[in-house]
Design a protein that fits this description.
The complex is a heterodimer of chains A (357) and B (362). Chain A is α/β, with parallel strands linked by helices and 357 residues long. Chain A is 39% helix and 20% strand. Chain A is built from 11 helices and 16 strands. Chain B has a domain of 231 residues. Helix content of chain B is 69%, strand content 3%. Chain B has 13 helices and 2 strands. Chain B has a two-stranded antiparallel ribbon with strand order 1-2. Classes of the chains: A alpha/beta (357), B mainly alpha (362). At the A-B interface, helix 1, strand 3 and helix 3 of A face helix 1, helix 2, helix 3, helix 10 and helix 12 of B.
């Protein structure tokens, strides 16, 4: 007992030795809230890299605290409110599921600015930003059609929301531009972030005979499965080449950094206003990871398509395009309005799956 | 030198009182060392963790929101565990309670009546109780181990919820996202005060804790729970039925978990979605034991555990430490509480003599 008391007293003294006041800094706070772990190798990591670039670029003027692994739901609302209360001037909420929570908190704190990724609800102090991921998926589809021996690719999808359906369609359209009979199988993992489920989905698709995998989920698990099974795959959100050096063909890499710097600069200059941004390859908000593990002619084709999309010469959704059941959707040469794409809830011809309704 | 644990002749009252405090101090000391190793000022970190969340009104509300389901579930479990019935499927009962309670607002979104909320709460409790009734039935009928059955039912409940919100209950205007329509205003559990988000679930939790404390302390039923829990045979001599106790404790804990489920969905979330709980049903087991299976102690332990969640978030934001730290903290706390409890039944003796351990005879 005596020794215990001595030990406690010693610890208390030790503790006292470390007391230092936390200095309040007069820097503008730009805050980030993540749905996953910032080292997930995918979606959240891409935002984290953007945050780090932002911090580096404007280091003297800002600090960029963040919260990670915040579940969508009541915890998100509390977390966002905490950010608003802790003096954040601008809050980036980086998951679709934070939409309602962002709007709710934004109403309570009209002086704080919010930017919600991939959502469709805006307010005077809530901007939205998104990336035309489908442009990258079209390129992936073309590569898949060239590289696949069986003419069937597998797609690990998250939720049947327009964003994801659009990606599936763009992939299939790209593939069909090379091989009109190309088929696409889809598995709904119903999660953004769950390495176990994503890996299971990958295995199920491979067992069904696909020899190319692509994913719209956040972790590198499908890439690892593809590497183990010796098939090819595309990375998502971050360059996943480390998870599959001999497997990854390319990856859609989200490069949010420039956008974060631009918007934060606008905030500092006092010119920030609520906008609905939907940028693409040409704006640099997404880039293609190096084209690897493919012959030179395929690589040349991919690079050419990328250049055409950037220049505006090619829009992945250009008619004639039929819906899955064969009825016409777009006439020859016709291109859809952005609003139509953002509400897309049907498959195009060639997708071998029934869209959950 | 070696350390020996020697069984005390009687339970030490001193350590019964000191043990939780000692555990808290040890947790703080080791927490401080952890922060120091992470290169953060330990006192500042502990302040952000444990004091700051208590200084603001809104954050107290958030504390109540987080603590309410933990306390509600844990007090029910405490009766179960005291009676030697090991219901570890509260997470599933929570889920089913949330589902059955949500039937009315999901299927009748146009029904604007003050009756809807009480009905939802009752249906939530009934759902949770019925779901806990399955392991109770299996145990009383077939002598099945309720630890296994109640745990396995958790996964069934989770998958059922998943299927519902992705299928029949999905909001047709919800952009295909797996969630139901938002509940009509009459179906939302109201806030207690206008100063924050905390809703009536916290009042339910306190009321349930006090009521069960009263039952365990002053009512024959409480005595029956303790006697049957300690010795079924002795209970039989007193005329108590172990089978009926299985039913009583399982239904009670299931009903409270169900109430927690529907309160969480109605008060905090406002619609049904695939994930409605960050593991409240399992964390509540920790809360129950931290509170030493005493309903009033559980109020305290529920608040402390909720505080570690909020503090973890605050610490992430203001001093930039990982969210994993709050989990480590919870682990430290539980570890020290359980190990300090050893001192209630045992005393530590340091043996300096180089004698061999006495031969065991007989």
């Amino acid at each position: 007992m005596k020794k215990l008391i001595i030990a406690l007293a010693a610890s208390a003294a030790l503790l006292g030795g470390f007391v230092t006041g936390a200095e309040a800094q007069e820097k503008t706070k730009v805050c980030f809230i993540y749905v996953g772990s910032r080292t997930d190798g995918g979606w959240t990591q891409a935002h984290e890299i953007g945050r780090q670039e932002l911090q580096k670029a404007l280091d003297a003027k800002i600090e960029t605290p963040f919260l990670e692994n915040v579940p969508e739901g009541p915890d998100a609302e509390r977390a966002i409110e905490r950010m608003a209360r802790s003096g954040c001037a601008l809050v980036f909420t980086t998951s679709f599921g934070f939409m309602d929570a962002t709007i709710k908190v934004a109403q309570k704190f009209p002086d704080v600015k919010f930017e919600h990724a991939t959502g469709f609800k805006a307010a005077p102090n809530v901007a939205t930003y998104n990336s035309r991921f489908y442009e990258g998926r079209y390129i992936q589809g073309q590569i898949a059609a060239k590289m696949s021996k069986k003419g069937v690719a597998g797609y690990i999808a998250s939720f049947p929301i327009p964003e994801v359906v659009m990606g599936i369609n763009a992939f299939e359209l790209g593939a069909k531009s090379v091989n009109p009979d190309f088929k696409l199988k889809v598995v709904w993992a119903n999660t953004w972030f769950d390495p176990g489920k994503e890996a299971d989905a990958a295995k199920a698709l491979i067992d069904q005979g696909v020899d190319i995998l692509t994913q719209h989920t956040d972790t590198t698990a499908p890439m690892q499965v593809a590497a183990e099974r010796g098939i090819l795959a595309f990375g998502q959100a971050s360059d996943m080449i480390a998870a599959g050096p001999k497997t990854q063909l390319t990856a859609i890499v989200d490069t949010w950094g420039a956008y974060y710097i631009k918007r934060t600069q606008a905030l500092l200059d006092g010119t920030w206003k609520s906008e609905q941004i939907w940028d693409g390859l040409k704006d640099g908000i997404l880039t293609m990871a190096p084209y690897t593990n493919m012959p030179d002619d395929v690589k040349a084709m991919a690079e050419e398509t990328e250049a055409k999309i950037k220049s505006g010469e090619l829009h992945p959704f250009t008619g004639p395009i039929n819906r899955q059941d064969g009825t016409p959707w777009l006439a020859a040469g016709e291109k859809p309005q952005d609003g139509v794409l953002l509400g897309m809830n049907f498959y195009v011809e060639g997708v071998d799956d029934k869209l959950p309704q | 030198m070696r350390i020996e644990l020697e069984k005390r002749a009687r339970v030490s009252t001193l350590f019964s009182l000191l043990s939780p405090l000692l555990a808290l101090v040890l947790t703080l000391v080791f927490g401080a060392i952890m922060f120091w190793l992470l290169g953060k000022s330990p006192l500042n970190a502990l302040y952000v963790y444990f004091v700051e969340p208590l200084l603001e009104i809104w954050s107290l509300h958030e504390l109540a929101i987080k603590a309410a389901p933990l306390i509600l579930i844990a007090v029910g479990l405490s009766v179960c565990y005291r009676s030697n019935n090991w219901n570890i499927g509260a997470e599933g009962q929570f889920t089913i309670g949330a589902i059955t309670g949500s039937i009315l607002p999901v299927l009748y979104p146009e029904w604007h009546s003050p009756m809807i909320l009480p009905l939802m709460l009752v249906m939530g409790m009934a759902g949770g109780a019925l779901y806990a009734g399955i392991p109770a039935l299996l145990k009383t009928r077939f002598n099945t181990n309720e630890i296994l059955t109640s745990l396995m039912l958790v996964y069934i409940a989770g998958l059922f919820l998943d299927w519902l919100v992705r299928g029949p209950w999905r909001d047709p205007q919800g952009y295909n996202f797996p969630q139901t329509k938002s509940f009509q205003i009459e179906a939302v559990l109201p806030e207690i005060l206008s100063s924050g988000r905390a809703h009536w679930a916290f009042v339910f939790a306190i009321a349930a804790a006090v009521a069960l404390w009263f039952m365990m302390r002053f009512m024959l039923k409480g005595f029956e729970v303790s006697v049957l829990g300690q010795s079924e045979r002795a209970g039989r001599f007193a005329g108590f039925s172990a089978r009926r106790m299985v039913w009583f404790s399982m239904l009670l804990s299931g009903a409270l978990a169900g109430l927690a489920g529907i309160s969480e969905v109605s008060g905090s979330i406002g619609h049904v979605q695939p994930v409605i709980s960050p593991g409240y049903g399992f964390t509540a087991i920790i809360v129950a034991f931290l509170g030493r299976l005493n309903p009033l102690g559980i109020i305290a332990s529920g608040l402390v555990l909720a505080l570690t969640y909020l503090g973890g978030e605050a610490a992430q934001l203001s001093i930039g430490i990982s969210d994993k730290v709050s989990r480590v903290f919870q682990g430290l706390l539980l570890f020290f509480v359980l190990s300090c409890d050893t001192l209630i039944h045992y005393r530590i003796r340091l043996v300096f003599a180089r004698t061999k351990p006495a031969e065991v005879t007989g």
